[in-house]
Structure of Adenine DNA glycosylase:
Amino acid sequence: MSKTPITRTLRNGTNSSTKPSEITPTKRKRAAKPKISSKNKGESGGIEDIEDLLKFNEEEIAEIRGSLLEWYDKNKRDLPWRRLKDDDDGGERKAYGVWVSEVMLQQTRVATVIDYFNRWMLKWPSLYHLSLASLEEVNEMWAGLGYYRRARYLLEGAKKVIEEGGSFPRTVSSLRKVPGIGDYTSGAIASIAFNEAVPVVDGNVVRVLARLKAIYANPKDSVTVKKFWSLAGQLVDPYRPGEFNQALMELGATLCTPTSPSCSECPVSVQCQALTLSRQGGLVTDYPLKVVKAKQRNEFSAVCFLEISESQNLVEDTQKTRRYLLVKRPNEGLLAGLWEFPSVLLGQESEITIRRKEIDKFLKASFNLDAKKTFKVISREEVGEYVHIFSHIRLKMYVEYLIIHLKGGSKLLQSAPDEGSMIWKCADSKELSSMGLTSGVKKVYTMVQQFKENSLTAAPTQDTKQTKSKNSLTAATQDTKQTRQRKKR
């Protein structure tokens, strides 16, 4: 049932029928709800600036700070990055740990991050140790977390800080100068590790603030984002900024969830305007506005799991004689600098003949591999299809398993044309299984291994038939010989 919008007089003398704390002119398709609860309206219908609706009064600020910190102290999750202490190094190890954890937690669940964080800190316990690592080592450690650019920025940032003297930046302004550190991460490090009274705003914080002030607006809009940062800045506790920021994020992650908020357990439910409006027929989950995600584009790729064998046929082929070709992606773009099996993007879904033709062209241009001149095809089989989902891409991969024997030996690959940024290597099965491969590449590897196992399972059946045939032939030959010997006698 629709509600009649509240009409109020603004300071410029005009009347305005408003919806709940709209920051941008985004209109709702559903019935309008009152902008604020009745207790926030002037009893005498007094003049009110719309900007005042986007501010917390002193009483609200005090109540929210006290209630939220008390709740956090009793209910916060025990997480490894929260156990880091301010050591004699002035909090730099804690700052480093906060940085690593916050970067890992972007787009990744807490439960997944814990093990990665512990392994990371064990291998690189300080900024200095991380600065000595290679990008390949970092990518291997990061494998499975996705969004690999985050790992590269961590490494680049560590190297920059060490090169400039090794002292960890302690303020938001200085942290922003480090590669890969933006507004959110700088605020988290500065407040949690160095007690600077600055806000942080992530998805959880946006949701909490939108419900506290009943803000129905696009949370991705730049103007709206600035308003959320302003609101968070009003609330941050000057004495315990780090704990308060973590409490606000914790509330969004555990109670004020997107679809099933636990309002009865919320420490700031009294100040929540969305909850007040829900008692008049609305829903707390109406806030903030649900933004329709951009549709993923479809892409198609032919992937070649290329095995190079020293043997010329499958009978002589052994595990020791096999090598697998890997190529490194460019240093910019999707999955930058990561290893994968040779692959070619296709313009559309394609038949096997077209896919093989494109793979052959790629192998010839990149590695001087020509089936007519430089190698012999031992086996070429279709393994299957696999769809890998990125945030903005739906990639369908057609996987084939190609075994070749180089006519000029393994040195032939050394004579491949110079492709500039093309970096490749051959790895044996042991090295391949221990590499930090992306989840998509791991899936391809697993598909091929399963294909090989199924092939081996089917092979004995054929061998058994051949053996029985040979045994029958041998027995028949022996019977014929014995018959001849009897006739001679």
